[in-house]
């Protein structure tokens, strides 16, 4: 292992490593669930709803002051 990789593992400790393993396994399980248990239509509609949610949360408030006040977008 390289010098940087070894230091990262030292800093994380056992708890950090375990948390990284849990996050990695969760991402893997989510991917496998999407691949094997959902149809293409479900995948497409899920993607569209996720993109719509991101748009309403992060993009739209930049031009709609009332929505910006309700959501509380910092820095704008």
Describe the protein in words.
It is a multi-pass membrane protein. The chain crosses the membrane at residues 18-37, 44-64. It is a single chain. By secondary structure, the protein is an all-alpha fold. It has two domains: 1-37; 39-76. The protein has three helices and no strands. The longest helix is centred in the first third of the chain and has 35 residues, at 3-37. The radius of gyration is 20 Å and the shape is flat. The chain starts with a helix and ends in a 5-residue tail after the last helix. The mean pLDDT is 86.
Q: Could you tell me the mean pLDDT? A: 86
Total E-strand runs: 0
Distance between the termini: 44 Å
Number of helices: 3
Q: How many distinct domains?
A: 2
The gross shape turns out to be flat
Biggest sheet descriptor? none
- Structural class determined from secondary elements: mainly alpha
- Which stretches of 5+ consecutive residues score pLDDT under 50? none
Helical proportion, percent range:
over 70%
Question: Quick gist of this model?
Answer:
It is found in: Endoplasmic reticulum membrane. The protein has 76 residues and is mostly helical.
Structural features:
single chain, 76 residues, mainly alpha, 2 domains, 3 helices, flat, endoplasmic reticulum, transmembrane
Question: How are the secondary structure elements laid out?
Answer:
Elements: H1 3-37, H2 40-59, H3 65-71
